Amino acid sequence: MCGIQRKKKPRRWRAIGIKDDEPRVNREIRANEVLLIDDQNVKQGVVPTRQALQLAEERELDLVEVAPLAKPPVCRIMDYGKYRFQQQKRDKDARKKQKNQSVKEMKMRPKIDVHDYTFKVKAVCAFLEDGHRVKVSVFFRGREMAFLDRGREVLDRVRRDIEGFGKVEMEPRMEGSYMRMMIAPVLPTLPVKEPAKEPGGSSKSPAPKAAAPKAKPEPTSDDVSPQES
């Protein structure tokens, strides 16, 4: 309006989606010289940042500052977009693994009926199949504290019934009014391959040869009975 144009500040290059806590890339690198590692993981030594940028551009890759606090800073030549994608995938897998390894709890009573027990054991097996650890807790109320053996019997039964789905990570122990046992999922085992069979159902391993029948001795005159006329 006054005829005075504001001088625009030079825009610092920043790829879309990159956060401020991520490493400096390309023209964002402020150091005058860097310790360069190329895309073949070969140390090129200390070089001017301009030279490192030129080398990255020639290879159509990015110059990434991986150790900014080093003197001089360490930079790598890499495909930064691909690197970020792989890093995000690793972080996602780590979060998923951590989520899958959360602890579930299944509560039971010392005098649990058959139907309730069957339902809860199936739920424990389902949790273990999904990769969760399961804390099985037997709750004692009032005078039931005098019969702790019943709680141990329930947990021993659970231990037997979840065989193949999980293994006991923490033996039964008392925690207040609860007797608790921790169960961890077991890793699936790879099936053992059977040896390939030949047509006809026989395996490739050679079958034991049957013993050859012994030749019968020719009859002698003494062995032949005279025919009646």
Automatic annotation (TrEMBL):
Residues 190-229 are annotated as: Disordered. Residues 102-185 form the Translation initiation factor 3 C-terminal domain. Its main location: cytoplasm. One of its GO terms (biological process) is ribosome disassembly. Residues 198-214 have a biased composition (Low complexity). It is found in: Cytoplasm. It holds the Pfam family IF3_C. GO terms for cellular component: cytosol; membrane. Residues 25-94 form the Translation initiation factor 3 N-terminal domain. NCBIfam families: infC. Monomer. IF-3 binds to the 30S ribosomal subunit and shifts the equilibrium between 70S ribosomes and their 50S and 30S subunits in favor of the free subunits, thus enhancing the availability of 30S subunits on which protein synthesis initiation begins. This is Translation initiation factor IF-3. The lineage of its organism: Bacteria, Thermotogati, Synergistota, Synergistia, Synergistales.
